[in-house]
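hiii so um. not sure if this is the right channel but i have a protein structure encoded as tokens and i wanna go backwards to a sequence. like what aa goes where. can anyone help
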């Protein structure tokens, strides 16, 4: 196991009917900006409940944070923060709203051009506004980590800082009942691949981390289709939302190698073709494993045995069957797993590879061995 630091200060408030506790979670004299996305939190009454729970505090709103939050949109929120002397941000939504709010938290007190935060990533975040979240979409784990991904110019860029951990996150599974089936499916895939990116690498004697990752994957397989078919099954949905948080809060990454090839290439697919993030992961992960069978042989074999209970046949056959079962799982959720399913043709591969090169993404994976040539193979295999 590698040396590691583990730090996660986010207070999780989990379960039914917890919105009323915002009054004790948000500082009493805070000037609050509530951020949200396309309006579903208004439609289903969540925003009204949040505002009621905030009581007599001064509250402003900023809606319209889009999927894959855009820099230009977030700058408008920064102006609201500065104009109203906001000192607490409350994100009500899914990963995009939470990610966008984290950027707002860093950008509002930043003295330079906020784009500098994206270009320099961690180094220039010296202070950030306090924030909390109310989770309405389980997927990214942003409610319990220090990262965000922002759309800027022609790409998607990650940003990390310990100052961006939410002070608290309210995770009420019932707030996710009204989600469209497609969004739930995307969230299941996202949580699944988050886990795989930290697990299907190479052996590092992180036994607790491996077993925990395997438990998350098995749980997602068990409850994924069930919670889509029965969205008000509390226990199934509760397990999904907790898996999504635990998949990317740093716990299973401690002391082990991490990959992130699927996410890195996937961000380019979203930026170029508008494919949902979860769908890009379902497209890429089976192909990545097929291309990197030798590099990932030991962990793919472990994945086959421990997650899918595949023990018969030679090693390559078991790995192939596990990859196939993974693809079948995604398809069972209604998520297509080939680029052609999204009208991306083979002639576009050159453009994707050029974008990777432009953004300096030329040595990916846990070994840094995924060159542009290997990325091309992955994309060809994903057609």
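sure thing!! here u go:
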């Amino acid at each position: 196991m590698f040396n590691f630091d583990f730090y996660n200060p986010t207070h999780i408030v989990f379960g039914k009917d917890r919105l009323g506790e915002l009054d004790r979670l948000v500082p009493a004299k805070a000037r609050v900006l509530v951020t949200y996305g396309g309006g579903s939190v208004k439609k289903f009454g969540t925003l009204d409940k949040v505002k009621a729970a905030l009581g007599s505090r001064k509250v402003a709103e900023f809606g319209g944070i889009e999927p894959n939050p855009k820099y230009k949109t977030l700058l408008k929120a920064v102006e609201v923060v500065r104009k109203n002397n906001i000192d607490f941000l409350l994100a009500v939504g899914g990963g995009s709203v939470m990610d966008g709010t984290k950027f707002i938290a860093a950008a509002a007190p930043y003295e330079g051009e906020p784009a500098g935060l994206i270009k320099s990533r961690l180094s220039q975040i010296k202070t950030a506004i306090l924030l909390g979240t109310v989770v309405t979409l389980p997927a990214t784990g942003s409610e319990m980590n220090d990262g965000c991904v922002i759309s800027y110019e022609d790409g998607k860029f990650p940003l990390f800082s310990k100052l961006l951990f939410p002070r608290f996150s309210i995770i009420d599974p019932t707030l996710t009942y009204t989600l469209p089936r497609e969004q739930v499916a995307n969230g299941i895939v996202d949580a699944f691949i988050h886990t795989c990116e930290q697990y299907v690498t190479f052996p590092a004697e992180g036994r607790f981390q491996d077993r925990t990752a395997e438990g998350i994957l098995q749980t997602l397989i068990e409850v994924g289709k069930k919670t889509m078919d029965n969205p008000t099954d509390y226990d199934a949905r509760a397990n999904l939302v907790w898996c999504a948080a635990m998949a990317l809060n740093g716990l299973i990454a401690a002391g082990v190698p991490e990959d992130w090839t699927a996410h890195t290439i996937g961000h380019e697919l979203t930026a170029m073709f508008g494919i949902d993030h979860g769908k890009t992961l379902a497209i890429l992960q089976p192909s990545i494993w097929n291309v990197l069978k030798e590099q990932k042989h030991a962990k793919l074999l472990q994945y086959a045995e421990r997650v899918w209970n595949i023990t018969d046949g030679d090693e390559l056959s078991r790995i192939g069957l596990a990859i196939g079962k993974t693809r079948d799982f995604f398809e069972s959720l209604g998520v297509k797993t080939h680029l052609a399913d999204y009208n991306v043709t083979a002639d576009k591969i050159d453009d994707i590879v050029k974008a990777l090169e432009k953004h300096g993404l030329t040595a990916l994976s846990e070994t840094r061995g995924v060159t542009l040539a290997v990325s091309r193979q992955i994309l060809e295999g994903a057609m």
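oh and Residues 11-175 form a domain with the Rossmann fold fold (CATH 3.40.50.1970).
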